[in-house]
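Notes continue from the previous slide.

Worked example: a multi-chain complex. Inputs as given:
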Amino acid sequence: MVVVADTGQLENRRAPTTTLEGWRSFVNADPSDLALLPAEQWEALDDRDRRDYDDARIAHHAELVVVSTSAITEITTEGQMLVLMNQREIGARRGLIVSADAATGKTTSIKQLGRLHELRVRARFPAGRDRIPVVYVTCPPKGSPRKLAMEFTRFLGLPLRTRANVTDIADAVCQVLVDARTDLVLVDEIHNLNHGTPAGEDLSDHLKYFTEHLPATFIYAGIDVERCGVFTGTRGRQLAGRCGLICTGAFPYRDEWAQLIAALEATLRLHHHEPGTLPAQGKYLHQRTGGMIGSLTHLIRGAAIRAILGGQEALTRALLDTVRIDHAAESATRRASSTR
Amino acid sequence: MTLNPARLAHFADWVTTLPPRPLPRTVTPVPGEYHLDYLARLADANHLEFAELTAALNDTAALTLHSPRGWKQHDQERLAAAAGQPLPRIARLWWPDPRVYLRDPEGFRQMLRPACRRCTARHGIHGPVACHLPPHLRAHRELTSRDAGSVGSGAGKRV
């Protein structure tokens, strides 16, 4: 019998990265390195082995492949530089805000920064297993200070639900994070913070409490941060004065787009796929996805899984046409074709 | 660990039977350490009140299902999950029957002795650790006050 692949991949569901266990499993997870079987061995597989092999390949394509784009490089470089600069800072620490449209890779970028930093800390302090170098939380919608504090306690797994006083909760969180030598805090969905509303002001004040009580660098990410009220009012101006802003967006139809597609094509594990087919469809892919990396990866991964299930084992234009992607990209494509 | 061991009908009831999440920080258990002393050290390391930690570990539903022996095993499994420590280490803590304390609180206190400071310091523990150490057990001569006197250095004096 031929051992074709680890069939347990689909069973390995990960905890969300907004919990410490989920974050650690994200940091520990190596990129999938599934190898294609030689053609004759693949054709000789019996039904059971073929099903297991296909399941393993589907799991491989279902996993988000991280391609190092210019945006990821810029965010990780800036982020690491800020961590280094803030390590001796005792006053106001500088932060970074990543702003862009949806599906442009903001969350992926800041998570990659966090993963890189945590791996670096682990390499430097191999005995420091009780360290928590990175915290990843999301800004709660219509958030209150209590909700924000609970996001931190949820990440850490601290059973503090019975405490009524939000300052008590925040204080315990800060003490644990100081003990655990946390030096990078990633706050996603910062667009939920609207300084134009009293609730948003409360939430902002509490976020500032964390920035002042934790000797850590804060990195924020959100959709259209410049226009959603984050920089409004006194608090907004203060935040703007402490944080740099990096705007990511859709990829223009240029060289980097072609490189991105070629990098994604290299991760495909299909038996009849001819290398170079996808870069040749670069313009079509740009029209379909509007240059959004999230839509592009979804389209290619979806088509690859269909190619395995349907037995085509190659990505073609006809197959790509059958994959439904996000509504924003689909409607942009429809608008563009109707105006032609 | 069994989920919903008492087969409770309402989610709000059986959700407390879910295994507790690991706490962000752990402390090394010392063999023979009184388990409530270990809980206090664990709570302190995580800046929790003792009652907050015991409430999070408490699984009252398990009482209805397990015999006292099984109940202890269940408690040990839950503490191991929360502390992020292997179950055998947690099982090596001292888990006395609560009736022992209730019968003779003063005698119970006398059964607790501080662990050897040199041994605990090796695990990064710098405070006193209350252990159940039978008088006949003398792995280190400085464990008992008699031996501490014979050593003469005072290094083994109880904290």
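Summary box: Residues 1-10 of chain A have pLDDT under 50 and may be disordered. The first strand of chain A starts at residue 95 and ends at 100.
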